[in-house]
Amino acid sequence: MYCGQSVTLRLNLRPSRIFTASSGVCHLLALISLFVTAIPAPLKVGLGGLVLLSWVVVQCGHGGLCDRWFVQQLEWCENGQWKLYGRDGRGSTARLVDCYVNPHLLVLNFAVGTFRRRSVLIFADSADSDEVRSLRMQLLRAYRGR
Question: How do the pLDDT tens digits run along the chain, 146 residues long?
Fold first, then answer.
């Protein structure tokens, strides 16, 4: 489904410095606490590798580290459908399943296709503040009864 001229809201996203810094600090603290504990060294190295892999996966999905996973643009159509665009310009139609609205953070959970889910984190510095405010208000109006 293509929205065309019936786009209610278009939001251009950029990687959030708040998210990148906070996830980096959390993973760094996990690494420090892992190496302070009294477990065998090979286990520390293995678990440390998993923590680093976790950081890479988190940054690819929400931090903008990997181009193909990062959602760069959102469109909310008048008919209630959403369109998610990656950095490569390809769009996919999605249905909003659930959302969390906060003045500093929006979490949008989408169903893309039959079995695929996609979450989009929108921090205060992820987009233009007026656009984020507009999206927040429209989400509160549209999903107040849920």
Answer: 455 556 678 888 888 888 888 889 999 999 999 989 999 989 999 999 999 999 888 887 766 666 666 788 888 887 778 888 887 778 888 888 888 888 888 999 988 878 888 888 888 888 888 888 888 888 888 776 55
Report how far residue 57's alpha carbon sits from residue 125's, in angstroms, rounded to the nearest whole number: 21
Distance (Å, whole) CA 110 – CA 91: 13
96 close to 83: Cβ distance less than 8 angstroms: no
Determine the Cα–Cα distance for residues 145 and 141; give it in Å rounded to an integer. 9
The pTM (predicted TM-score) of the whole model is 0.76
Domain boundaries in the chain? 7-14+70-142, 17-63
Distance of CA 125 to the CA centre of its chain: 13
Query: Where are the alpha helices (H) located in 14-83, listed in sequence order?
Result: 17-36, 41-58
